[in-house]
Specification:
Serine Threonine Protein Phosphatase 5, Tetratricopeptide repeat; single chain; mainly alpha; about 0% strand; 5 helices
């Protein structure tokens, strides 16, 4: 009888161990998911702040500062069409049309769907 009780207790311990492991893994995944959500929200907020600052520079005619602002972001996000779009608009406003045209072409390589709304209004048909 005593050996049966010991055997049963060992089985219960094994089951509790498995339950504990599963619970721990679940908590770990929950924590990682929560961290991922927070990081993505931060990235989104930072991106919106970047766009707001870019818009502010443009509205105030601070094109050289806007270009520097874009160059810094381009280092970290080389495929962000917004970077090239703002740079293109800045160069266009500065009268550097060839640079602007080249940058608008880069925008179209990254985001072909932007042609009608975001590129065509700023460069004449070729």
């Amino acid at each position: 009888m005593e050996s049966e009780i010991l055997h049963t207790l060992k089985e219960i311990r094994g089951i509790l161990y498995v339950i504990g492991c599963v619970f721990s893994i679940g908590v770990l995944f929950w924590v990682l998911r929560s961290i991922s959500i927070i990081v993505n929200q931060f990235k989104g907020a930072w991106s919106e702040d970047w766009k707001a600052r870019a818009n502010d520079y443009f509205d105030k005619g601070r094109f050289d500062e806007l270009i520097k602002h874009c160059e810094m972001r381009k280092e970290k996000y080389p495929n962000d069409a917004n970077v090239y779009w703002w740079m293109a608009r800045s160069y266009k406003e500065k009268g550097e049309l060839e640079k602007a045209r080249a940058l608008f072409k880069t925008v179209l390589k990254i985001e072909p769907g932007w042609e009608k709304e975001y590129v065509a209004p700023y460069i004449p048909d070729e």
